[in-house]
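User: Predict the complex with zinc ion.
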Amino acid sequence: MQAFTEAIRPVAEQIARTAQALAASPIWQDLADFANSPEGRAYIEAVECGEIEPDPPSCHCWCQVSHKPQQGICEHAAVHKLVRVSPTVGQVNIPVCGPCRDAQMAEAR
Ligand SMILES: [Zn+2]
Ligand SMILES: [Zn+2]
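Assistant: Here is the predicted structure with zinc ion placed in the model:
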């Protein structure tokens, strides 16, 4: 048992150092601040309840159709919602990324 403890000590110390470095990094601090804020708690609860997806929604733009002249601009992570009114399903919100939204706006003009 003694030998085992000796063997894992460097690993444990490395993990402790990594954890400290992580805790000291500004990104982690931002994340911790967010998690402790009312908005953060609400967000986490919503994620846990399955109300929202933890990852940003992906772009649902039909690039080949919506902005034919501009292909390959899609960033895939949706940051905007385009509201479209469909005759069959009514109003729908389509998650789109920034470049796709701009391209669609330009096309719609
Ligand atoms: Zn697109
Ligand atoms: Zn896109």
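The chain has two domains: 1-54, 56-109.
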